[in-house]
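Example record

One chain of 232 residues, shown exactly as stored in the release files.
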Amino acid sequence: MKVRELMTTELITVGSHAHLKEAARRMIEGRVSGLLVTDRDGKLIGVITEADFVKAESDRRASKRARLLRWFSREVDEIPSTERLVGDVMTRDVVVIGPDADHAEAARLMRKAEVKRIPVVDGDRLVGIVSRSDILRAFARSDMAIIEEIVDHVIGDVLWINPKRVDVRSVDGNVTVKGRLETKSDATLLAELTRRVDGVVSVDTDLTWEIDNTKLEMVSPPPSGLSRSNWR
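Predicted structure tokens for this chain:
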């Protein structure tokens, strides 16, 4: 399943020049643990998460303590404001994915980067975000949806097999395929492509065929010294 079919397009973003209080407010109101940070043109430039807030607060207290000591020793005349901006603490190295990538690639990226969600970009344009829960939907498809994809797409569009030749059933993603096809190669391809359908857990086939085209011998071309007219 393509990422564009799973991603969320209603995004909560924040600018890099916003105060951390504003970012925190948006996170609380949106009930999210992170925000996408965009520039004035809407281009993705970073992300800010709860972990960034924790680190920012830790750094702020350490910095404030140091400034207090310097103030008491009269090294500074006043204690400056500690208000910080999103751009000061956000993560700039962001893992992204394209809308036409499949859900398996998104899952691999999440596992490798140890993140729960990945922004989706089309060129420089931010178009959505895909999360772990979105990916799980690809593996939790209904049996009817699985059967429809096998019959309509695999059997009909890809292999050009008459659907009346095949009986497809699915129970909790465990698919059984029965029927009599024209060739053995069709049966082999049908079994292999069915295993690749999103949501399929296992495939049990009971397929027969009229022609075993995997054993047909190919006629060798004539030796280079013979003309085509002599090759009969």
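Notes: Strands lie at 13-15, 34-38, 44-49, 117-122, 125-131, 166-171, 174-183, 202-211.
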